[in-house]
């Protein structure tokens, strides 16, 4: 790893990836994370993919997996592709045993003075789904959670703001006691009269929905995500697109650890209401909101 020749360092990374197994996974992942901080820019995205794949494949404790993934986003946020942070969300949704821990570390990650936008996306989504699991802690009561998320809002791109507006709607359902406060944010001129059509439409529709729907209807519309059907990891698909895998890299066992058990995971009502259809038609394909993720699990289908 200390060689000056980039091609030699690349081969070292490939070798570490190929030789990784359950007995040495933690050491190899940590070594790759350490090197990532100073790695050549040309290999960082591939390293991010390989670290994400190894940490999920060999995770015995999924709290360790989440710690690694959030550290990965913090270290190399610019090189974390959509597939990587999508996958973090999918793992959390599919594993009820780590959802409370995920909410806790997502909340802590947002407290950093400088927070990468991909971290805001992941934390915003997780807190919108599972923020209630940490709401009894006086350090993370609903209002503190909301204010922390909203403090990042004006620093974000339109796509991330759209996702955060969906988080705000989820908060109205999770925490009725702050409903009026959240509605005031949605009603604010920067959203309600935004020059960006997507933000304006989303804020307007969410505000109207929160005003006319009963608590029962809102609970149905904004119910937590159901487990995702487990398919081939989209990270492996992405890595294959970047570089053909060797036999050693493709011979490992599949990602069975996150297979959902219908009796363990949250349920979604059969009649799911999809919000803001125009968002799903945007060309960039980013996860803009909770409704985008739940719309036929389109991201998983696209990579299967």
From TrEMBL:
<dbReference type="InterPro" id="IPR050840">
    <property type="entry name" value="Adaptor_Complx_Large_Subunit"/>
</dbReference>
<dbReference type="GO" id="GO:0030117">
    <property type="term" value="C:membrane coat"/>
</dbReference>
<feature type="region of interest" description="Disordered">
    <location>
        <begin position="247"/>
        <end position="276"/>
    </location>
</feature>
<keyword id="KW-0653">Protein transport</keyword>
<protein>
    <recommendedName>
        <fullName>Clathrin/coatomer adaptor adaptin-like N-terminal domain-containing protein</fullName>
    </recommendedName>
</protein>
<dbReference type="GO" id="GO:0012505">
    <property type="term" value="C:endomembrane system"/>
</dbReference>
<keyword id="KW-0472">Membrane</keyword>
<dbReference type="InterPro" id="IPR002553">
    <property type="entry name" value="Clathrin/coatomer_adapt-like_N"/>
</dbReference>
<keyword id="KW-0813">Transport</keyword>
<feature type="domain" description="Clathrin/coatomer adaptor adaptin-like N-terminal">
    <location>
        <begin position="3"/>
        <end position="210"/>
    </location>
</feature>
<dbReference type="GO" id="GO:0006886">
    <property type="term" value="P:intracellular protein transport"/>
</dbReference>
<dbReference type="InterPro" id="IPR011989">
    <property type="entry name" value="ARM-like"/>
</dbReference>
<dbReference type="Pfam" id="PF01602">
    <property type="entry name" value="Adaptin_N"/>
</dbReference>
<dbReference type="GO" id="GO:0016192">
    <property type="term" value="P:vesicle-mediated transport"/>
</dbReference>
<dbReference type="InterPro" id="IPR016024">
    <property type="entry name" value="ARM-type_fold"/>
</dbReference>
<feature type="compositionally biased region" description="Polar residues">
    <location>
        <begin position="248"/>
        <end position="261"/>
    </location>
</feature>
